[in-house]
Amino acid sequence: MSQTDNIFSQPLDKVDSFSFDQQVVQVFPDMIKRSVPGYENIINSIGMITQRCAVDNSNLYDLGCSLGAATLSMRRGLDEKTGCKIISVDNSSAMVESCQQHIKAYKSDIPVTVLQDDICNIKIENASVVVLNFTLQFLTPEKRLSLLTNIYQGLLPGGVLVLSEKFIFNDATNNQLLVDLHLDFKRSHGYSELEISQKRSSLDNVLISDTVEQHYARLQQAGFKHNDLWYQYFNFGSILSIK
């Protein structure tokens, strides 16, 4: 059972850099629901994308799988497919342990392998669907192109990448409005000004956002020629890239 996210509810003498440790794992579902606009819509849609785009006898990857929400959605979308398997990867031991428990709790004949590893170490092979759901933003920028190139090269023709991210925008006025709307979203879900401020400090230099245009340019450099924003809610959204 998920606990309420109150990690930053009390004044901290020192705000440490954000990490996906056991403390975060315990509150993660509540944290995501109250922090990421549209998260449930994206998760549900990943299942629909999988249903349409996955092909028989292929691999599907959830890179940065956290507790496995996208993995489970992908697996539901594979009901009519045969010979598919899902590889889910996260570098947090606490996340991997909880993800494995969540996967086991939902019975299915579709195999899922959950690995604790750096997603940059994973060779993508025979893939029809790859998901990076709010993951790329936690990689240092110099590692992002290499990862996307690896994904592109490992995708089958017509294979898809779902890339969900927190964006920044070139127009400063519009960017500030979208930032403010996101903060209003968090306030409306019960976060205090102290929690918002300390969480922001914790994420400084840990979560590094790109513009949509930067994402498109990097995806094209990796080889993807078909890239479009299919979902956006304030400054959060998701891009669909097709090989």
From TrEMBL:
It catalyses: prephenate + S-adenosyl-L-methionine = carboxy-S-adenosyl-L-methionine + 3-phenylpyruvate + H2O. InterPro entries: CmoA, Methyltransf_25, SAM-dependent_MTases_sf. Its EC number is 2.1.3.-. Gene3D superfamilies: Vaccinia Virus protein VP39. The keyword ATP-binding does not apply. Residues 62-159 form the Methyltransferase domain. S-adenosyl-L-methionine binds at residues 39, 64-66, 90-91, 118-119, 133, 200. Keywords: S-adenosyl-L-methionine, Transferase. GO terms for molecular function: transferase activity. PANTHER family: CARBOXY-S-ADENOSYL-L-METHIONINE SYNTHASE, TRANS-ACONITATE 2-METHYLTRANSFERASE-RELATED. Catalyzes the conversion of S-adenosyl-L-methionine (SAM) to carboxy-S-adenosyl-L-methionine (Cx-SAM). Homodimer. Belongs to the class I-like SAM-binding methyltransferase superfamily. Cx-SAM synthase family. This is Carboxy-S-adenosyl-L-methionine synthase. It comes from Psychromonas arctica. The gene is cmoA.
